[in-house]
Design a protein that fits this description.
The chain is α/β, with parallel strands linked by helices and 197 residues long. It has 5 helices and 6 strands; from the N terminus they run E-H-E-H-E-H-E-H-E-E-H. It has a 6-stranded parallel beta sheet, sandwiched between helices. It is globular, with a radius of gyration of 16 Å. The chain binds magnesium ion. This is D,D-heptose 1,7-bisphosphate phosphatase.
Amino acid sequence: MAKRAVFLDRDGVLNVEAGYIRRVEDLHLIPKVAQAVRKLNNLGIFCCLVSNQSGPARDYYPVSHVEALHQRLSQLLFEQAGAKLDALYYCPYLSPAAGGVNPEFTAWSSWRKPNTGMLVAAAWANDLDLKQSFMVSDKVTDVDMAHNAGLKGVLVSKNAGKPVIGGYLHRTKPDYLAKDLNEAVTWISKQIKKNLE
Ligand SMILES: [Mg+2]
C-alpha cells in the first residue's frame, strides 16, 4: 500500500529563513522543529524535504554546499530530538529569465516549485500516496502546488491567528494555517486519526 507523506519546505519551516546561506554554520533550526519532525517519525509518516535551491544556478555556491547544508540540517534534527528526514529533494535549476547564469544549472525544470515535479518524483521513488499526503510551507505558492498535485496544503505563518491583512493570503486557501511546524504537525496528526476512524 502506498504510504502517506508529509512534504516539508526548508527555509522558514525547518530552519530560520536567512536568505542564501553561504556558511554552513549559519543554518539554525527553528525552535521545536526537531521535536515536530520526530512526532511525524513516530507516527510512521514519510518525511520528505522539497526545496528550491537556486544558489548553484546563480553561481553563489556549488551543489556540494547545498549538500553540506542538508547534512547539517539532518545532524541538528537528529541531535535535538532523534528526528530524521526520510528523503531530501531539492531543485538547483533556474531558468535564464529567473536569473540562472551557471550553464550547468540554468534550465527550466519541472522540479522547481511551484511545479509539482519533486512531489511526483518522490512519490514514484518511494511509493507515496499524494492524495493522502500533506505539504507544509511558509509560501502560498507551495500551497497552490500542493493542491495541484492533490495534497493538502498547510501554510506556516507567524501571522496565523491574527487578522489577515487584505490580499495577504493571495487567492490561495490553505487547508490549515499554523504558526509553526509544531502546530502544523498537531493538525496533520488529527486529520490522519480522523481518516483512520
Ligand atoms: Mg520557505
